[in-house]
Design a protein that fits this description.
CATH topology: Rossmann fold
Structural class: alpha/beta
Number of domains: 1
Radius of gyration: 16 Å
CATH class: Alpha Beta
CATH architecture: 3-Layer(aba) Sandwich
CATH superfamily: Flavodoxin domain
Number of strands: 6
Largest sheet: 6 strands, mixed
Number of helices: 6
């Protein structure tokens, strides 16, 4: 079992990153192999809405997103984390998701299999405010990604009122819930 974690936060060791680490620790506790991708460390460009797209769902831009596509196709489960910025996902997260336009086109327009197998998925998000609608905005985008890559949206964790870097450490209940989500994904 391979669980892939994707961190959409610009902060290393920030709240989203710590929650992802806890989820992956939960997966490892059940015997899964884990891997973490930190989007902010990758070199990739936003979707260019290429006029000529590959009909197999693959993206024509050759950058670090090619590795992300490959890793997701190899995963048996996925945990995606993103902080809320301006009422939605971080720009790193949104850039990654937009690059799945080719896979979306293959699946929904061309009705082709682009190589993503059915896997369970979890979305974890953290924000400084207590606006539930911000989590709902983020969740809607994450669910669209999951549908496109055939990930079943099984678990979610929303952590409001977490502002400063590493504030999540003062909330052991959220950390335990992230751990439990990771453990359940590995079953």
């Amino acid at each position: 079992m391979k669980v892939l974690g994707i961190n959409g936060s610009p902060r290393i060791n920030g709240n989203a990153d710590l929650l992802l680490d806890k989820a992956l620790q939960g997966s490892r506790s059940k015997g899964a192999d884990t891997e973490k991708i930190i989007l902010n460390k990758l070199k990739f460009v936003p979707c260019q809405e290429c006029e000529k797209m590959a009909d197999d769902g693959g993206c024509l831009i050759n950058d670090d997103m090619q590795m992300v596509f490959k890793k997701i196709k190899e995963a048996d489960a996925i945990v995606f984390v993103s902080p809320v910025f301006f009422g939605s996902l971080s720009s790193q997260s949104k850039m990654m998701i937009d690059r799945f336009q080719c896979a979306w086109r293959a699946k929904y327009i061309l009705k082709k299999d682009s190589g993503y197998k059915k896997i369970p998925g979890a979305f974890i998000s953290v924000e400084g405010s207590v606006r539930k609608d911000f989590f709902q905005n983020s969740k809607a985008v994450a669910k669209n990604l999951f549908a496109t890559i055939n990930a079943v949206y099984k678990y979610e964790l929303f952590c409001p009122a977490i502002e400063a870097k590493a504030d999540i450490l003062e909330h052991p209940g959220y950390l335990k819930e992230a751990f439990n989500i990771g453990a359940k994904l590995a079953l």
